[in-house]
C-alpha cells in the first residue's frame, strides 16, 4: 500500500502555474464573448491569480505572455506579485501576431524577418531577468500551408540557428522550453510538429533546453503518457501545458474531456520521479475560458490536476511491479484501475484543511465575493489575448 503521509506531502508540495491569458477575454475565430470584470492590465490578472491561489493553495505561479503582458517596469510587476504571495512564471514569447511573420518567424526565408523574431526572443530573456522567471516558453506557429512553399530542411536549419542564439543568452538558472504542435495555424507542415522534433533540437542545444508537452497538441489517439515517460527517462521533460481537447487545440479545462488520460499522464509523472521539485517539471495550464466564468474555471482546472495526481500517488507501486514482473496482465491493469477508481475528493479536502484552506475551493471562491467585486469595480476590461 502507498504511504499515505507521503501522498499527502506530495499533494501539498505540487505547484500549478496558471496562465495570465486565461484571466482575460478570449474566443474562437468566430466570436469573443466578453465577460464582466475581466482584468484591464497584467496587475489585475495577478489579482485574479491571487484568488485562485487563495482558494487552492496550489497556484502561486503565473505565466506571462509578451506582448500581451507588456509593462513599463517588470520589477514593479514582480514586486506586485510577491506582495500577493505569487511569483512570475514562464515567459511566453509571441512571434505569431505580426504581419511580418506571415511566412514564418525564426524559420522565415527572409533574414530580416528572422532577425526581428530573434530580437523578440532575446527581449523575452531580458524580461525573465527582471521578473525572476526560470522558463522561456517557445511556441512557434511557423510552418507552411502548401507543398513546395518552402524548403522543409532549410527551415529546420534556420530554427536551429535561432534556438542556439537564444540558448547562448540564457542565464545559469534559466531554461528554454520548446513546445510542439501538430498543426494550426500551418496546415501542411509545421516546423515543430511533434515531440521528436522538439527533443532533437533540445538534445543538441544542451541541458537548459527541455521539451514542453501541451496536452492539446497531438493527433487523436496519441499515447501522450508514452511521450511523458520517454522524456522523463531522458531528463528532457521541462513541463506541461495542460488543457483538454475533443478535436484539435481546444484549450478546454484540463481533466474535463478525458480524466483517465490525465491520470495516465500523472501516473507516468509520479512513477518516473516527475513530481520531485528538483526535476523541475512545470505543471502549467494553457487554457482559454470562452463561455464559462474564468476564475472558477481555473480553480476547477487546478483541482482536476490535483485529483489526477492524488489517484496516481495512490497506485500501489509494489503490487504493480510484482504483477508486471510476473507477467500478470490482468492484475497489473487492475492495480492501476483501482487507483483510478478511488474517490480522492475526501483525501484532498482533508489535505486542504490541514493547510488551513477551505476543503472546497469552488465554495471558497464563491463565498469570497470577489466575482461581484470585479464585475462592478472593473469597467472596460479588454486585455489583449487570444482573439481580442
Ligand atoms: C499555442 O497553440 C500554444 O499552445 C501556446 O503555448 C500558447 O497557447 C500561446 O503561446 C499563449 O501564450
Ligand atoms: Zn500551449
Ligand atoms: Zn495550443
TrEMBL record:
EC annotation from Swiss-Prot or TrEMBL: 5.3.1.-
Keywords from the UniProt entry: Isomerase, Manganese, Metal-binding
N-terminal signal peptide: none
GO terms classed as biological process: L-lyxose metabolic process; rhamnose catabolic process
Superkingdom of source: Bacteria
Gene Ontology terms, MF aspect: L-rhamnose isomerase activity; metal ion binding
InterPro entries registered for this protein in UniProt: L-rhamnose_isomerase, Rhamnose_iso-rel, Xyl_isomerase-like_sf
Designated name of the protein: Sugar isomerase R00627
Amino acid at each position: 500500500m502507498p504511504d499515505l503521509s507521503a501522498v499527502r506531502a506530495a499533494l501539498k508540495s505540487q505547484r500549478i502555474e496558471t496562465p495570465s491569458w486565461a484571466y482575460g477575454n478570449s474566443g474562437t475565430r468566430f466570436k469573443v464573448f466578453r465577460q464582466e470584470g475581466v482584468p484591464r492590465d497584467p496587475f489585475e490578472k495577478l489579482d485574479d491569480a491571487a484568488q485562485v491561489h487563495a482558494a487552492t493553495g496550489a497556484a502561486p505561479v503565473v505565466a506571462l505572455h509578451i506582448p500581451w503582458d507588456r509593462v513599463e517596469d517588470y520589477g514593479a510587476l514582480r514586486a506586485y506579485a510577491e506582495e500577493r504571495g505569487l511569483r512570475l512564471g514562464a515567459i511566453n514569447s509571441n512571434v505569431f501576431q505580426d504581419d511580418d511573420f506571415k511566412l514564418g518567424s525564426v524559420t522565415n526565408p527572409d533574414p530580416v524577418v528572422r532577425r526581428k523574431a530573434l530580437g523578440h526572443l532575446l527581449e523575452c530573456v531580458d524580461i525573465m531577468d527582471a521578473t525572476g522567471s526560470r522558463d522561456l516558453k517557445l511556441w512557434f506557429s511557423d510552418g507552411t500551408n502548401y507543398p513546395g512553399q518552402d524548403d522543409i530542411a532549410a527551415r529546420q536549419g534556420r530554427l536551429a540557428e535561432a534556438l542556439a542564439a537564444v540558448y547562448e543568452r540564457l542565464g545559469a538558472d534559466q531554461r528554454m522550453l520548446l513546445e510542439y504542435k501538430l498543426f494550426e495555424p500551418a496546415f501542411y507542415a509545421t516546423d515543430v510538429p511533434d515531440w521528436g522534433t522538439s527533443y532533437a533540437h533540445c538534445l543538441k542545444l544542451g541541458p537548459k533546453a527541455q521539451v514542453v508537452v501541451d496536452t492539446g497538441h497531438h493527433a487523436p489517439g496519441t499515447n501522450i503518457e508514452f511521450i511523458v515517460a520517454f522524456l522523463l527517462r531522458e531528463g528532457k521533460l521541462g513541463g506541461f501545458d495542460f488543457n483538454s481537447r475533443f478535436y484539435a487545440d481546444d484549450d478546454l479545462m484540463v481533466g474535463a474531456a478525458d480524466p483517465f488520460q490525465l491520470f495516465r499522464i500523472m501516473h507516468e509523472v509520479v512513477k518516473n520521479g516527475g513530481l520531485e521539485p528538483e526535476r523541475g517539471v512545470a505543471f502549467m495550464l494553457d487554457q482559454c475560458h470562452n463561455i464559462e466564468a474564468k476564475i472558477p474555471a481555473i480553480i476547477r482546472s487546478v483541482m482536476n490536476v490535483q485529483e489526477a495526481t492524488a489517484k496516481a500517488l495512490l497506485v500501489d507501486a509494489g503490487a504493480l511491479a510484482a504483477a508486471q514482473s510476473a507477467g500478470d496482465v490482468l492484475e497489473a491493469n487492475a492495480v492501476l484501475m483501482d487507483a483510478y477508481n478511488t474517490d480522492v475528493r475526501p483525501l484532498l479536502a482533508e489535505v486542504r484543511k490541514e493547510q488551513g484552506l477551505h476543503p472546497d475551493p469552488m465554495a471558497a471562491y464563491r463565498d469570497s465575493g470577489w466575482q461581484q467585486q470585479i464585475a462592478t469595480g472593473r469597467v472596460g476590461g479588454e486585455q489583449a489575448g487570444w482573439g481580442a
